[in-house]
Specification:
With about 110 residues, the protein is mainly β. The protein has a domain at about 30-100: Sandwich (Jelly Rolls), CATH 2.60.120. It has strands spanning about 20-25, 30-35, 50-65, 70, 75-80, 85-100. Strands 1, 2, 3, 4, 5 and 6 form a 6-stranded antiparallel beta sheet that branches. InterPro entries: Cupin_2, RmlC-like_jellyroll, RmlC_Cupin_sf.
Length: about 110
């Protein structure tokens, strides 16, 4: 067992950066990270080669994907399949999201 004590905590991006992603755990079949975007920020991520599950810890935004757009806030859980274009838009409040990749991020390059 491992406790991920820093997972889900908002950490502002460094100056000049759009957001902050911190990997909290990596094993072959799973990785977990915390993705933070400031209110009014821009999400510049690109589609991933792994499936993703987002769990919104705090903040409010829209998640816009190839398959549609949804409003997200605390407690929202969204699945995005590998290869689907997506990004957070209209970030109304500092956004903190737990991100689960299966298998671990970048293992299907």
């Amino acid at each position: 067992m491992e406790v991920l004590s820093n997972a889900g905590r908002y950490t502002p991006p460094d100056p000049g950066q759009d957001g902050r992603y911190t990997e909290e755990l990596r094993v072959p079949d799973l990785s977990v990270g915390t993705y933070c975007l400031p209110a009014g920020g821009v999400d510049t991520q690109r589609p991933h080669t792994e499936d993703e599950v987002y769990v919104v810890v705090s903040g409010r935004a829209r998640l816009t994907a190839d398959s549609g757009t949804v409003e997200v806030g605390p407690g929202a859980v969204v699945f995005v399949p590998a290869g689907e274009g997506h990004r957070f838009t209209d970030i109304a409040e500092d956004l903190t999201v737990l991100v689960f990749f299966g298998p671990a991020e970048y293992t299907r390059r």
